[in-house]
Amino acid sequence: MKNVKQLFGTVSLINTTTEIIAILTDDGEYSITEMFDEVGLTLGDRVSGSLEELGEIILTNHTTRMSGKVWINDVGLDRQTAIQALKG
What is the Cβ-side half-sphere exposure of residue 58, based on CA atoms within 13 angstroms? Predict the structure, then answer.
């Protein structure tokens, strides 16, 4: 079984048209996610999950106490690159 690092972060940017979300991890980098399940993400929500791993993960929203599947598209981004990723 692979050892997966759980990271905490804050929902920082949302493209409401595409439902692509940028999460600023506590490590100071951005992860780009797409929603699969309704996790009730809004700006400022505290979340945790395998935010450094590409692909499908379970994301826990500690603000709403909901969990669901998201797809991690990119990791380790700076803010400007994260903004560009949300623009598509």
Answer: 6
